[in-house]
Structures are given as structure tokens and as C-alpha cells.
């Protein structure tokens, strides 16, 4: 499930791109399909980094094979200032306490005119989850805050970066999480959860056009993620 629209970034051959908080590597694999990029993924989870590395190594359709994954803290990044042409940070800030320090670091390592892409859960869909289930927001390692659009945009632009696009993604995943909050986050045996999960997996693998069209229509209304595209100074 890819949240970032990389074709909008127009990444040039030789660009150095960081995925800060790469998790299991979903965006790293999407980046590897773009020719001749230099890709770095960081995360605090060693098991996620191992999954990301395995996924990159086993890609039959990779067009970029210059990649590195490493354990690092987003709040104290081990990179020189103005190193990266593009930095992405997808579904990470809502998990960490010192989110403004993390943003400062992401902007620090970005080259002038470089692109920063940040995505977080959207306020409406996330708020419903919090209202339905106390277990959802008490989950260890889970979300510790909900962002309102204008407040987050103000926090981002305060770092000296300009927002040039905002969009929404993954509307069809919202009912799935609402259902999980209703029946129990760990309840994988519920018939609605099982069939809806199969539907989402089928959609991710097969990408049927009519389902893609429906989700694009729904994204502005109930999209699960809000995505900010920003440029440095």
C-alpha cells in the first residue's frame, strides 16, 4: 500500500532519497521501481529493517539497486545537512513525542529546493477510531495524537518549507479500521474483518480499475491519510 505519488516528484537519475521511518519497506520498493535512484531507509525496528532489506533484494522489477537500510532515530539523523534531494516521512510523526524536533531534522538534511513529503492519518477517520475504541489509542507503539490539517500545515511551513500539494489516500481502508475498532483490534476471526481484509489484499495485488476509480472518488471525503508535498526554501 503506497501512500506517496512518486510520479509527482519527478525524481531525476542520481537523486538521493531518504525514507525516514521506512518500516517494512513499502515505499522503498516503490522507489526502487524508478531508474537510477540512490535510496536510504531508516527505522528504529531491526525486524522491520530486515523485512525491508529482504523485500528489496527479492524485487524482480527493480530499476534502482543502490540502496541502504540502517537503524537510526528520526530525531537525531546521522546525515550531513543538505544531503538529500528528497525525504519522505509516511505515517511516522503521529507515533513520536518530539515531532517538531523530527521535522527540524528532516528539513536540515534536505537540499535547497528539495522535496519533503509527509503523511499522517487524517483527522476525521482517525477521530472515529479513537471514539469507538480506547484500545486503539492505548496500543503500545500506536498513535499518540491526531493532527488537524491547518495545525500540521502551520507546523510544517514554520520550518521554512512551502506546501505545493495536499491530497488524500486509502479511503477504502477506513471502514476496515472502524470495523476492527468495533469488534476488537485483535479479533481476526470476525467474518466481516476476514472478508474485508481479503478484499483489500485483492485490491492491492490486482488493482482493478473500477475499485481504483471508486477510491479516488472517496479519498477527498474519507481518505485515511492526508499527504503534504513540500519544497525547501
**Poorly predicted runs:** none
Q: What is the CATH architecture assignment?
A: 3-Layer(aba) Sandwich
Q: Roughly how many Å apart are the termini?
A: 30 Å
User: Could you estimate the helical fraction of the residues in percent?
Assistant: 25-40%
CATH superfamily grouping: Vaccinia Virus protein VP39
> In terms of quaternary structure, what is this?
single chain
Q: Mind summarizing the main beta sheet?
A: 7 strands, mixed
What fraction of the residues are assigned to beta strands by DSSP?
15-25%
The CATH topology annotation reads as: Rossmann fold
Q: How many DSSP-defined strands? A: 7
Identify the strand order in the major beta sheet: 3-2-1-4-5-7-6
N to C succession of SSEs: EHEHEEHEHHHEHHHE
Average pLDDT reading: 95
- The number of helical segments is 9
- Just give the CATH class: Alpha Beta
Could you tell me the radius of gyration in angstroms? 18 Å
Which class do the helix and strand fractions yield?
Answer: alpha/beta
List the helices and strands and how they pair.
Layout: E1 16-20, H1 26-31, E2 38-43, H2 46-57, E3 66-71, E4 84-90, H3 99-108, E5 110-121, H4 123-132, H5 134-138, H6 149-157, E6 161-169, H7 174-183, H8 191-206, H9 209-222, E7 225-232
Parallel strand pairs: 1-2, 1-4, 2-3, 4-5
Antiparallel strand pairs: 5-7, 6-7
Report on the structure:
- This protein has 233 residues and is of the alpha/beta class.
- The protein contains nine helices and seven strands.
- It has helices at residues 26-31, 46-57, 99-108, 123-132, 134-138, 149-157, 174-183, 191-206, 209-222; strands at residues 16-20, 38-43, 66-71, 84-90, 110-121, 161-169, 225-232.
- It has a seven-stranded mixed beta sheet with strand order 3-2-1-4-5-7-6, sandwiched between helices.
- Strand 1, helix 1 (26-31) and strand 2 (38-43) form a beta-alpha-beta unit.
Amino acid at each position: 500500500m503506497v501512500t506517496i505519488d512518486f510520479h509527482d516528484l519527478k525524481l531525476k537519475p542520481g537523486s538521493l532519497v531518504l525514507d525516514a521511518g521506512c518500516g517494512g519497506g513499502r515505499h522503498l520498493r516503490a522507489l526502487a521501481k524508478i531508474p537510477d535512484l540512490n535510496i536510504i531507509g531508516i527505522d528504529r525496528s531491526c525486524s522491520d529493517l530486515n523485512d525491508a532489506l529482504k523485500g528489496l533484494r527479492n524485487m524482480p522489477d527493480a530499476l534502482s539497486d543502490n540502496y541502504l537500510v540502517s537503524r537510526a532515530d528520526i530525531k537525531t539523523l546521522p546525515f550531513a545537512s543538505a544531503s538529500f534531494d528528497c525525504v519522505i516521512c509516511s505515517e511516522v510523526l503521529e507515533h513520536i513525542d518530539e515531532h517538531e524536533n523530527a521535522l527540524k531534522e528532516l528539513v536540515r538534511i534536505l537540499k535547497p529546493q528539495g522535496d519533503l513529503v509527509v503523511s499522517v492519518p487524517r483527522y476525521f477517520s482517525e477521530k472515529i477510531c479513537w471514539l469507538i475504541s480506547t484500545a486503539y489509542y492505548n496500543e503500545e507503539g500506536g498513535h499518540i495524537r491526531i493532527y488537524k490539517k491547518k495545525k500540521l500545515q502551520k507546523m510544517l511551513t514554520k520550518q521554512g518549507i512551502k506546501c505545493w500539494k495536499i491530497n488524500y489516500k486509502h479511503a477504502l481502508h477506513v471502514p476496515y479500521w472502524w470495523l476492527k475498532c468495533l469488534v476488537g483490534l485483535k479479533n481476526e476471526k470476525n467474518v466481516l474483518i476476514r472478508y474485508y481484509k481479503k478484499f483489500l489484499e485483492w485490491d492491492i495485488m490486482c488493482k482493478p480499475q473500477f475499485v481504483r476509480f471508486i477510491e479516488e472518488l472517496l479519498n477527498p471525503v474519507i481518505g485515511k491519510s492526508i499527504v503534504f508535498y513540500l519544497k525547501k526554501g
